[in-house]
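Re: [help] complex structure
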Amino acid sequence: MSGTKRETGFTFTIDGVEVKATAGMTIMEAADEAGVYIPRLCDHEGLRHQGSCRVCTVKAGGRSVAACTQPAAPGQSVENETPHLTKMRRDLVEMLFHEGNHLCPICEASGNCELQAMAYRLDMTEATRFPYLEPCRSLDASHPDIALDTNRCISCGRCIRASQDVDGKGVFGYVGRGIHRRVAVNGENLADTDAEATDHAISREVCPVGCIIRKRVGFAVPIGEREFDHGLIGHEIEEKRK
Amino acid sequence: MSELPKARVATASLAGCFGCHMAILDIDERLIELMKLVDVDRSPLTDKKRFTERCDIGIIEGGCCNEENVHVLHDFRRNCDVLIALGQCAIMGGLPAMRNAIMHSDAPLRECLDEAYITGKYIRNTTHNVPNDPALPLLLDEVYPCSQVVEIDYQIPGCAPSGDIIFDTLLKLLTGKFRGFEGDMIRFD
Amino acid sequence: MDNGYTAANGKRGPSCDVSPVPDGEIEDICSTYGNDKHRMLDILREVQDRYRCIAPATMDRIAAATDLTRIEVEGVASFYSFLSLTPKGRVTIRLCDDIVDRYAGVADVVSVFEEVLGVSLGETTADGAFSLEYTPCIGMCDQAPAAMVNDVVLTKLTPESARQAAEALKAGQTPEMIVSNRFDELSPRERVLAMVDNNTRHAGEVLLGPVPEEAGLTNALKMTPAQIFTTIEDSGLRGCGGAGFTTGRKWRFAASERAEKHFVICNADEGEPGTFKDRVLLTERPHLLIEGMTIAARAAGAREGILYLRGEYAYMRAYLEQVLEERRRRNLLGEAILGQKNFSFDIRIQMGAGAYVCGEEGALISSCEGLPGEPKTRPPFPVNRGYLGYPTVVNNVETFCHAARILDRGAAWFNAMGMEGSHGTKLFSVCGDCLNPGIYELPYGHTVRELLAMVGGLEAAAVQIGGPSGVMIGRDSFHRRLTFDDLATGGAIIVFSGERNILEIVDYYMSFFVHESCGYCTPCRVGNVFLQKAIGKFRSGHANPEDIEYLKDLSATIIETSRCGLGMTSPNPILSTLLNFPLVYSATSRPSKDGIRDTFDIQSAIDSARKIAKRRSYIFDKDFTQ
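Output below.
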């Protein structure tokens, strides 16, 4: 996406802010470069776009679309942080909280968790109307260096793509359908796979929640110094514009 | 501000660890400021076991794991104009609610009690019995967040919530200025 | 329907490795399909048929043969309802549990099977002989209750006929023998007709009336592709699967895309509960369908086509294969069709394996590619980059049949039928509480009341138009018209009498969507479970008036943020009944008193503790005495 083909460049607006793009760019890619943050969970820098969490839903030309997969169009006016879209996104984040078993107070990822940070950003503080599904999910501590607590998995699939596309391995994949669809490992358990603690898929930045855990390194950073103790999720992108 | 009549506040700790009440003390010296605005009615802080009169604000720590919790929560809802769920247990069940997810057998409560008192790996219970004194309240089939039992007006998140967010929220509610939380004040841990 | 979460708990069922598959057999199956990962669904179906389960060790071997990882194979094997990671019986009986079948008494039929075969619903007998389970609509609502016994379809079941069937199976007879004791001697077409009635109640001018052989194709071969699109566009033909996209434009878009290959796919995955029109076309007009596909191939420049046949219609497969073979013999398929040197086209049948979502264009293509049936990200659209990345025309069975007729009789003839914006005829599959369930081919534009008069359903209190993803209307809307602009439908019309419980129907439809959501996107995967639970609260009298707003609000989020048509329409049963039957909801909800939620049931919450402690509640048992 470098600016070599200047002739294909165009502009569009997000919440009134003019944003530059080139042909083939998604709305989110253009927004990120311009310092406009669009909330997202399943999308992650350097990985294929998937468009499954739907948290990046924006209104483009009057239609609701996923910003991470929708190509930017010249002259289009895109709505991002409107009360309506923030409400939709809050509903989606709340669905993810209620689908699994998310107990922030006992989670290693607390403070570094993107799901939690998204709830902060979207102000998920009102009494819930959604039921808790409280599924019974497995723990996999078979691997010497890595543990999986799938209670916290939000099915974003970032580990799947990181393992396939970056590590060239295929440690993870989706199985099942509907509410039973989940991320599983390529074998009986994780020890059965060729996963290593040094894989990109296992790194802290890939799993947005506390599902993929590197053993012996939990709770290393004190409260107050964790990633989202320093600012709302997305602030690095927004600071580009300031 | 001192012109305002004092508000009556009540508090209770249900299925929680009392940490949220401890966190109220984290308000520190600002408690003096707060006490100029409120009288505390029924509360573990005053050791009053019953409401002496109707309250403006009720603050609930903890979710509902037994019948007594439900009873107390009902009593608070009936006697308080505004009910606040304080902390993750009151808001979403918290750690006590872990039993909801880990027990998926046909008799989850039985299994839970057996593991807690008899079969658990680290149990040293020489009686080999599950406590069953008539004074013990009956447990609920699962742990419920307060909002599933009564209507909750406000929630203050955290485990425990910081003294700052409790003070700030109460002060704003008492002076009619609460418009939601600042994004950087919200914490679920 | 199964909506519990135990399946996700990571527990493993009994392994199927009791008798290991002999060396080489799995590899043979894979090599039949060229070890092609895109044929994974065929490979897995064959493994399932032969060994009755897809075991972990088997998946390892399939993965090795097709150059995939095991988790990729497992992803496909665990997606489709008719594939199983745990062993199924040698005979698997799948009873259709559609709402129409329920009202027709399927529960009594289930009891008989359970009793005679000694197996509970959802289980397999210890000797591995029989499995008994429910499956969503199998497309036989006009002859409910119905069941699939392996690939054989049994219809109009009664407790008596079920007992005969079960006893015959138990005595070792094959499912085919239940249909006819001279099943082996029947032709493929006779077999289909022996199993399932067509129930054609009204033949229209276009599809079910007299149809001359290959007249459309003969004309098309004399035309340029551009003339073909123009004819189809001028006719006003729109897709008959439900979405109603203009067919001629779709063909034109695909043809104008420069690519090494183009594909034509027929969507014969009609899974919308209450729909069975394609079943009748596939039985009665298979040549017309293939003719239509061939014309589309001619127009779009495709050499290869796929007929995606839903797994529930496996009983027709041999017949359709025979039709294709006959057409190859008559040079209507294959190289240089009817002597045109530059026109070759052939079709393979892709069997589905039990997944409603595969009726969605992108999911259908994913399924043809050997992947889980998940919709694809749009754009690109299938006409630009579809099957294996090539421009692809996907149309419904009925649409292809119409196209063939339009090429025969001309655009003006077709355009003159129906109404502005909704031209030609449409097949309506009518079932439920009416005297004459079956297929009605009618021009667009009839009112619901006119249709009800034809089918003997004027007593109806509610009519579901277009299946669960459509709308439910009441008597005050029976004047509305069956057109794209008023009441659009893929063809399903389900009639409900005043005795039916609207909330039960809505609950069933929501359980259907929960079961059939692919799970790719959050709102559809999770939101539909929440909706179904909320309907459960209304049914059990535990709903607040605020829950009505909650239903609307949650539905709006699901519709707006879902990735494909399934999630965009799944709240429709709720929204249309809230609109047209509001009393059903207000009458079953009750407000909280003093802010205390009636919906929290303290008695049931302390019941298990009462039993364990063997004492009553000092607080909540009113009659408590020490």
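Chain A has two domains: 8-79, 88-218.
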